Every structure is written in structure tokens, then in C-alpha cells.
Amino acid sequence: MSALPDPTAPPMDDRPASSLPDPTAPLTASGNLRRRAAVSRLLEIVATGSAVLAVGVFCIVVYAIASRGASVLSFSFLTTDPSAPGVGGIAPAIVGTGVIVAIATAIAMPLGVLVAVYLIEFAGRRSGRVVRTALDLMNGLPTVVVALMVYGLLVVDHGDSAIAASIALAIIMLPLIARSSHQVLLLVPGTLREAADALGVSRWRAVLGVVLPSALGGIVTATILAAARAAGETVPLLFLTSLVVGNTVHVNPLHAMYGMPYVVFQDLESGVPSGIAQAWGTAFVLMAFILAANVGARVFLARNRSRLGL
Amino acid sequence: MLYGLCAVAGLITMVVIAEVVYQVVSGASPAISRFGLGFLWHSTWKPNFFVFGAGEMLFATLVTSLMALALATPIGVSIGLFLSMLAPRGIRGVVGPLIEMLAAIPSVILGLWGVIVLAPFVQQHVEPWLHGVLGFIPIFGVAQTTGLSVFTAGLVLTIMVVPIVASLSRDLFLSVPRELQDGAAALGATRWEVIRGVVLPSTSSGVIAAALLGLGRALGEAVAVAAVIGGGSALHASLFQPGTTLAARLIDEITSLDNKLHLAALFYLAVILLVIGVLTNLIAQAIASRLGNQTMLAR
Questions:
Q1: Interface touch A179/B298, C-beta < 8 Å
Q2: Which residues in chain B have their CB less than 8 angstroms from residue A182's CB?
Q3: Which of A234, A289, A288, A297 is nearest to A62 (CA)?
Q4: What is the rounded CA–CA span in Å between residue B239 and residue B66?
Q5: What is the sign of the dihedral through the CA atoms of B278, B284, B287 and B289?
Q6: What is the Cα–Cα distance from B157 to B66, expressed in whole angstroms?
Q7: Which pLDDT belongs to residue B108?
Q8: How buried is residue A240: exposed, middle or buried, by Cβ count under 10 Å (0-12/13-18/19+)?
Q9: Which residues of chain B have a CB within 8 Å of the CB of A42?
Q10: Residue B296 pLDDT level (bands cut at 50, 70, 90)
Q11: Which class is domain A75-308?
């Protein structure tokens, strides 16, 4: 449209004139300004409409969970054991999700931060590239593949256990934490490191005392977001910790435990009305946890940013 | 000392990747040696007769993922444009996080919603309408009774892929130098012409990489698809028929194994998923690094 070359304009250098946009073309009245403006307007409407659509879908899903889940929700729903699968409270699943995700976080957070520190402080060009590629590949692994790996490694021989699910979730969380921590560490001003060097502080003390504390807010945010993501994963629970003995709360990670996503999945598969009601209630609790973690992490990051003046 | 710890952590990431490959391939080896590559296109799956083939699952996986890709890429890119160029600051600060939270909804919850809310709606309104308008194309056949179909699965996957494409492409568009856009605008280009002429050409390879990352997510998604795809086992031309994907079959049958070969065949499905997942990821990385934009894959 505007980039159409004016055939009467002389070529500006020895390249063919057709490959060069004529800088004066938009300034020459071509008579189709109204059409160009309309096309542009159309694009704005399409883009805005897409955003409205996505936000609309989010609101519809959250509304469906809230309206159907709230009627199931009660104090006893949260605190009692189910009397049979699909009937009654979900206390074991809440405790189970808490334990499994806590162990996964305890594995993934230190590892992820160490990998990020390695990338920033120690890695050469090639080793850094290799580790970054490994992280990206890990991030792209389908959860079924990760879960099946742990299944082959642990569950085939030793049976279901919560710790197996934690390991699978830690593998899912590790690249998320490492990449975000890497980004935050990149933001730490080089002057801080140089100041530490000038004071004769050794490398590891500089990392522990100067670099990590100034990046702590971002690292914590990344960990919370990764934990929220892990809390919603179903496949590791289904593959690795679904053969639960009994319907009561227990906290031994060497035995299988219920988790909230698995309860939703199981109820959905069973298809009985009481199970569907329990599924909506469980989905409500899980969603509330995840949204709270997301909002909390964002608020925390914003406050941290403004405090550091970044 | 700290160096040692960090290097070990870096090594662990590579060991995990190697271990994933080793475990999955060794678990699948009985099935690989028995069925060979023919597994990929044979479509009989009868665990109790020791006959396995992934053909129709591979087909359904590709159909649902490509449908999600075809719908999610334009929508996601449009949202990226809206967030990076059109929306005022205040709206941007609200809509951006909301769309990222769409990605935070667990797939099992999306599956629950898909079965109980979306599928009946699709069956009663969307599928009959599409059949009426576009019914002369075989892929828009007659709607089935439940709404659990390949089409519904594609829609659910679209919902999961849109936020990925949207947030990646927003970051890409924000990285386009302001001066170039202002320059084009100063020459009299309309907003669309600025986007067509300046923003999209300089980010196109990044957008392709973002779409590939979304595709990778769609190919490997299990729970939400298993819930809404209905679990049939025949090849259909129509999108409105049920089907099953690689990942969905895997989670449907892993807890009810018939025999050792059945488990090996399920591992073989995971090998296929692993290969597809690694390939899409590597291609996306290659495209993104040719762009010279290392940061875009960080999310």
C-alpha cells in the first residue's frame, strides 16, 4: 500500500527501484487513505477482540469453578477424610499435595538456583550453552515422559510413593526456577560484584553475601510460580502415587498419597454425580491456591522491584 | 567449593536428560524390537492379543495439535500485538497477568470444565452450526451425542496454547526498537502498516519459534485431552468423532496393564512423544538463536 514504489520516481542507487521503498510514497496523496485507515482499524478491533476473548475464557472457567465449587465447599469438606472414593472430604489430598509439592520444591529450588549461579558466575561459553540447552529441553519434555521416566526408575521396582511424584515434579520445576533465577541474576548490577572484588571478598562469599541477596525477591517469585505449576500437575500423581492404601490423612512420603489434581481426575473418570461434585469442590480449592500463589508472587515481585529501584 | 556445587547442579540437568532418554527407551525396548518402526503406522491396539500400533493415536495427536496451532497462533499473536502496541498502560497491566493466569489453570481443571461445560455447548451449538455451514467438507461431519470429540480436544488445547504464544510474542514485539516504529509512523504509515512493515518482519522467526513451543505443549498434553477426546479407536475424517492421542492413551492405560508387552508399548508411545517434543524444542531454539534473541525462551 504505502510501500508501493512510485514508478515515476528516479532510482536512488543502482539497486532495482522496485526493491526500495520510496520514502515519499506515503506523503503523496494516493486516494486510498480511507481504506488504509479502515484496514488499520480492523486490525485494532481483531487484536482487541482476541484479548477480550482470552480474558473472557479465563473468566468463564473461573466462574464455572467458583459457582459449582462453592456449593460443595464447607469446613468439613476441607478437614474430613473421604468415606469412599468420590464421597466426602478431601483432607488427605490437601495434605498430600502440600507434602509432595514441598518436597519437590526442596529438591528443585536449591538445584535451580545453583544452576543459575553456575550459568552466571562460572560457565564458559560452551558449557553455558550446553547447560542452557539442557534446561530448555527439560522444559520442553512432556510431563507424561518425565513421569514415565520416574516410573521406570523407581515405581516398577519399589511401588508407588509420594517421593517418586516429588522427584518428577522437581524435574518439571527445575528448568522454570533455573531460567527465571538466571534472568534475575543477570539484572544484578556488575558494580556490586566489582565492589565486592575491590574489597578482596572471595568469589563464593560475594555470591552468597551480595549477588544472591539482591536477587532473592526474583528467585522466591520464580519458586512460588513453579510450585503453583507443580501443584496442578496430574500425570506424575497418576503414574507414581495413585495406589493409595486407606482413605485417611498420612504424611509418610515413602507411601503413596492422594493429591488434589488426582482426586479431580479420578472423580471425573468415575463420572458418578457425587464424584463430580467432589471434583468441582477440589478444583475450587486447587484453583484458589494457584491463583493466590500467582497473585501473591506478582505483588511480591512488584514490591521487591520498587524497593530495589529496578 | 561453590564452583563444585554449581558444576554438579549443571551436570545434574544433563544427567536427568540422559536418564529420561535411557529409561524411556529401555522400557520400550521389548516393543521396539518386536514391532519396529511399523508401530508408527499400524493402527490396531489390542493389549490382550499382544498387538499394538500407534497409527491412529499419532494421527489424532497431530490433528488436535495442528488444530490448536492453527487457532492459537493468530489469536496469540493478536493478543501480543494488543498488549505490546495498542492497549493503554493500565489495561495492559490487568489483561497481561490475566492471560498469563489462563496458562496457570491446571490441565485437569480445564479437562473437568471441558467435559461438563464446554463439550455440551460445542455439541449443541458449535458442531451443528459448522456442519450446516461447512458440512460439504468431510472434516465437519455430523455432531455426535456427547460432544466429546477431536474438535473439542483441539479447542481445549487452543486455550492452553494461546497464553504461551501471546506472552512470548508480546515480549518479542516489545523488543522492536521504538525508533523504527516511530520512523514508519512519521512517514505516514498507519498502525497496521507499522506492524506489517516493521514489527512483524523483524520478529517473524521469533513468532514461529513461539508457535513451535506452543505446538510442543499441545503435542504432549495428556490429561485435558484424555478427558474431552472421548477415547474412540478408529480413524475418522470428521473432527466431531471421538479419538485418542498418544499421551491420552498412555494415562488411560498405565494403571490397568494387561501384560509386560503392554507396558513396553506404552513406553514406546512415550518414546514417540519424547522424539517429537525434543525435535520441536530444538527447532524452536535454532530459529530463536538465529534471531539472536536468547532471552525469549526463558519463560
A1: yes
A2: 298
A3: A288
A4: 12
A5: negative
A6: 10
A7: 93
A8: buried
A9: 192
A10: very low
A11: mainly alpha
Q: What is the pLDDT of residue B166?
A: 94
Distances (CA, A) of B212 to B165, B188, B223, B279: 9, 34, 21, 10
- Residue with C-alpha cell 477480550? A52
Cβ count near B170 (within 10 Å):
24
Cell reading at B59: 494421527
Cβ neighbours of B7 in A, within 8 Å = 118, 122
Closest approach of B12 to chain A, Cα-based (Å)? 9
**Structural domain spans, chain A:** 1-30, 31-70, 75-308
**Three-class SS state of B46:** strand
Look-up: residue for cell 506515503?
A26
Distance CA A222, CA A108 (A): 11
Cβ contacts of B116 on chain A, cutoff 8 Å: 64, 276
**pLDDT exceeds 60 at position A201:** yes
Mapping DSSP to helix (H, G, I), strand (E, B) and coil, where does residue B27 land? helix
| Cα–Cα distance for residue pair B124/B117, rounded to 1 Å | 11
3-state class (DSSP) for residue B16:
helix
Distance of alpha carbon A250 from alpha carbon B36, whole angstroms = 45
Total residues belonging to chain B: 299
CB pairs under 8 A between A and B: 272
Per the document, the length of chain A is 310
Residues near B22 by beta carbon (within 8 Å), at least 6 away in sequence: none
Mean pLDDT, rounded, for A94-122: 91
User: Inter-chain contact B116–A276, Cβ cutoff 8 Å?
Assistant: yes
Name which of B99, B115, B190 to mutate to probe chain A: the one with the most chain A Cβ atoms within 10 A of its Cβ: B190
In chain A, which residue's Cα lies nearest the Cα of B197?
A3
Residue B282 has pLDDT above 70, yes or no: yes
C-alpha A279/C-alpha B3 separation (Å) is 47
Nearest-Cα distance to chain B for A248, in Å, is 22
Q: Is B49's Cβ below 8 Å from some Cβ in A?
A: no
Q: Does B25 touch chain A (CB under 8 A)?
A: no
Decide if B27 touches A, using CB distance below 8 A. Answer: yes
The answer to whether B132 and B44 have CB atoms below 8 angstroms apart is no
Q: B10-22 b/e with 16+ CB inside 10 Å = b?
A: bebbbebbebbbe
- Residue A2, pLDDT score: 45
Q: Which of A53, A114, A204, A169 is nearest to B72 (CA)?
A: A53
Alpha carbons A212 and A109: distance in angstroms, whole number: 13
State whether B19 and A153 contact (CB < 8 Å): yes
How far A239 CA lies from chain B's nearest CA (Å)?
7
Domains (ranges, CATH) in chain B? Answer: 44-298 (1.10.3720.10)
B247 at interface of A, judged by CB pairs closer than 8 A: yes
B14 to A27: CB separation less than 8 angstroms, yes or no: no
